[in-house]
């Protein structure tokens, strides 16, 4: 029995080795076959993309539906071919220990997407398409065929742009749900991550493909963003980078990330920077965070609230109109930079203070910080239970109502 057992073990070992060897020999062939199939499907989808685009430009309604249907069919077959390549080639190479670091990373990302299929199907649908397109874009770049790459870029930008918009729209709808504070923060993180990913990887290609300078108005904001693209960021710099991301989103994703969601993102950042101020013990870092808060209040009020049409609470609209009138008055002293900056800072602090007084128990630490700032700026005096400002007494109730 022992001899038989050893013989069976030896046979198994032999066949296992033989199978492994054959698999390793066949993998390059499989990769070759998959590459040819992907290439054929890619050419088909590019051809139908061009046809569909021309029909839309010609405004030919009779052919439009047929062309779009054919384009979407070839697009589905193209994605299926890439998906099959991941499972047939990359998966087997990783399993057999012959995969490169890029392939290992690609498979890891693939499974991270697959695992959200049951819980977040819409997000999974957008992310998987995005992943497969990005994978083949890498492949097209590596071919070093300029004509093909230029042709592919236009299709790639068109499709992937729609997928990013779909993701942001999906997250915007989720924020409307009755989420817990923790889950709401997870959605905010996803929004900021998707915006950063888009601006880092897709916007440069979009600016390159677009020959009519349609996006020239985003260049200034994009240059600001690039200042935060390298190196490790502290919490202050991370908040500032996200502030730039929201500003860019107002130009790039007006419909997918509606104004109401952008407003919620700004409010989230305002809360973060206020917390940073009151939690920071080092005076220099606290002042740096305070400088960012002033900048953030300005962007929130000037770049977002000034464009707001619908207000759910009329009293908030009236309060903002009063703020805007005072802000516009400051233009008369703009030549005197020092006075202008001082009065603008005071206006912003008072404006934010009015908002915070409506939830005094929650924000008592930052309220105290603001009051001390106003005292140091010479517009308030410490008086028991009240603060005297510019000849008038400002009580808590008045601040909340005005």
What is the averaged pLDDT score?
84
Q: How many domains would you count in the coordinates?
A: 3
Number of helices: 14
Shape: elongated
Please state how the strands of the largest beta sheet are arranged side by side: 1-2-3
Which structural class do you get from the secondary structure elements? Answer: mainly alpha
Our measurement of the CA-to-CA distance between the termini, rounded to an integer number of angstroms, reads 95 Å
**Topology, number of strands:** 3
List SSEs in N-to-C order: HHHHHHHHHHHHHEEEH
**Which spans have pLDDT < 50 for at least 5 consecutive residues?**
1-12, 14-31, 391-402
What would you say this structure looks like, in words?
The protein has helices spanning 2-57, 61-95, 101-114, 121-142, 146-175, 181-209, 219-226, 235-252, 259-279, 283-304, 314-329, 337-356, 364-376, 396-401; strands at residues 380-383, 386-389, 392-394. The protein has three domains: 1-144, no CATH class; 191-307, no CATH class; 311-402, no CATH class. The chain is mainly α and 402 residues long. The protein has a three-stranded antiparallel beta sheet. The longest helix is centred in the first third of the chain and has 56 residues, at 2-57.
Identify the notable features of this structure and list them briefly:
402 residues, mainly alpha, 3 domains, three-stranded antiparallel beta sheet, elongated, disordered N terminus, disordered C terminus
């Amino acid at each position: 029995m022992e001899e038989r057992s050893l013989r069976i073990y030896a046979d198994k070992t032999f066949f296992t080795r033989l199978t492994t060897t054959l698999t390793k020999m066949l993998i390059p062939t499989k990769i070759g076959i998959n590459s040819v199939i992907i290439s054929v499907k890619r050419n088909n989808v590019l051809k139908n993309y061009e046809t569909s685009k021309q029909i839309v430009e010609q405004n030919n309604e009779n052919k439009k539906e047929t062309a779009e249907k054919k384009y979407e069919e070839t697009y589905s077959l193209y994605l299926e071919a890439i998906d099959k390549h991941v499972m047939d080639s990359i998966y087997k190479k990783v399993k057999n220990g012959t995969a490169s670091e890029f392939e290992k990373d690609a498979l890891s990302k693939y499974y991270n997407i697959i695992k959200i299929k049951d819980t977040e199907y819409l997000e999974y649908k957008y992310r998987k398409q995005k992943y497969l397109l990005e994978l083949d874009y890498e492949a097209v770049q590596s071919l070093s065929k300029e004509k093909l790459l230029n042709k592919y870029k236009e299709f790639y930008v068109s499709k992937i742009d729609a997928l990013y918009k779909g993701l942001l729209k999906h997250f915007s709808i989720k924020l409307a749900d009755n989420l817990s504070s923790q889950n709401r923060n997870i959605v905010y993180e996803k929004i900021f991550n998707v915006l950063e990913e888009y601006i880092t990887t897709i916007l440069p290609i979009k600016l390159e493909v677009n020959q009519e300078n349609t996006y020239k108005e985003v260049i200034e904001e994009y240059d600001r963003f690039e200042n935060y693209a390298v190196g490790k960021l502290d919490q202050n710099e991370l908040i500032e980078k996200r502030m730039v991301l929201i500003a860019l989103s107002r130009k790039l994703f007006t419909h997918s990330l509606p104004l109401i969601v952008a407003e919620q993102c700004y409010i989230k950042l305002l809360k973060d920077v206020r917390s940073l101020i009151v939690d920071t013990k080092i005076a220099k870092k606290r002042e740096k965070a305070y400088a960012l808060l002033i900048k953030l209040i300005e962007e929130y009020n000037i770049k977002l609230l000034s464009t707001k049409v619908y207000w759910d609470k009329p009293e908030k609209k009236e309060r903002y109109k009063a703020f805007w009138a005072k802000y516009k008055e400051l233009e008369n002293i703009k030549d005197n930079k020092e006075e202008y900056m001082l009065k603008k800072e005071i206006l912003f602090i008072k404006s934010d203070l009015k908002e915070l007084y409506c939830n005094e128990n929650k924000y008592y630490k930052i309220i105290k910080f603001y009051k001390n700032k106003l005292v140091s700026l010479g517009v308030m005096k410490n008086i028991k239970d009240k603060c005297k400002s510019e000849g008038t007494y400002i009580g808590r109730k008045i601040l909340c109502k005005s």
